[in-house]
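Annotators were shown the component list below and the corresponding predicted structure, then asked to write short factual statements about the assembly.
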Amino acid sequence: MQTTSDEVLIARVANGDRLAMQVLFARHHVRVYRFVLRLVRNESAAEDLIGEVFLDVWRQAAKFEGRAAVSTWMLSIARFKALSALRRRTDDELDEETVGAIADQADDPEVVLAKKDKGAALRQCLSKLSAEHREIIDLVYYHERSVADVASIVGIPEATVKTRMFYARKKLSELLKAQGIDRGWP
Amino acid sequence: MNAVNGNEEGDVELLLPWHAAGTLSHRDAQRVEAALANDPELSQRYELVREELSQTIELNESLGAPSARAMEALFAKIAAEPVRAPALSIRVGAQFREFFAKLSPRTLAWSASAAALAIVLQAGVIAGIMYKESGSTDVASYHTASVPSTASGAGSYALIRFRPQANAADIDKFLENNNLSLTGGPSVGGLYRVQVSPKKLAQADIAGILKRLQEDKVVDFIAATE
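Structure shown to annotators:
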């Protein structure tokens, strides 16, 4: 069975078709939610933000020019909303986050267990990366965005996309090494 | 080795994450495959990339999904939005987005060689038909009944096929700038029927218009039709 393409759905949304909007939402809201959640690290805030993202999709559909895939366009909107929300956070909240990050560095029982499970350790280190590095790793590995797509979403040159991904991976290896897992790279 | 120093080997290493995710162009994927086949150390590092890919997916999949509250709140807001009237340009755009949706960037990237060959073959076949019918290679004299039409009667019409690289926005702009309106298509070969003028123009005038339109970057093929 062939499904209706995102581009066709967007054109229908631009004409005020709410059913097309429901299809588009059903198709993409989980991935958009996860992308936002990884950036803002708060489930309730992430839910609110995806509402804002899809409301923008509804309102801006007529302006969609088809220069990138619809999913890439939606991730761009989601990123903008998430970063704006992060900027709105109070200093107190940021302090709590910093404390949380410091606590994460401790070699607690979870970490001890993680050392026995390389996969779990890797996932834990993925969560400890900076927002900039988490974002690019998620876009490339989970959201399957090409170099050009990432450049479009993040707003940086393609060459920078490649080097930023490299440094994100390098940082990941360093975090693993700090947990006693040497990958032999870099 | 320093992967960010800009040399060929370093460039290939930078592409490994996209190769693992399957989002490289066919050409780059082949380049990476060749490097992996000849460099055991690079292959070992590629295994690390695959490990990262696997765990990133697992981590994201463990994040769950938003509650129904998110959808309810969104559609309550949408219901409160003013009803909007569809614009003509949007209706035209929708037809082309449907057409181009079948040619997604990734599909195009993987089938670029095949598409290029198909275009060349198609052009050859069309030129052959034209030559037989008219004894010349003037594209303005090509006639066919293969494109279903939604309009008939007075006016001057043309069959047009757009380049696969042209996007919907480019095509919308091209139609608008040249006062063309879609009246039929697409056919199996991706041909559309457009009204060039509401009046029945002389053949020489149509040929002049089509020659100008043919020079636009979005046009792959154009010919006069009834």
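Statements collected:
1. The radius of gyration of chain B is 25 Å.
2. Strands of chain B lie at 156-162, 181-184, 192-197, 219-225.
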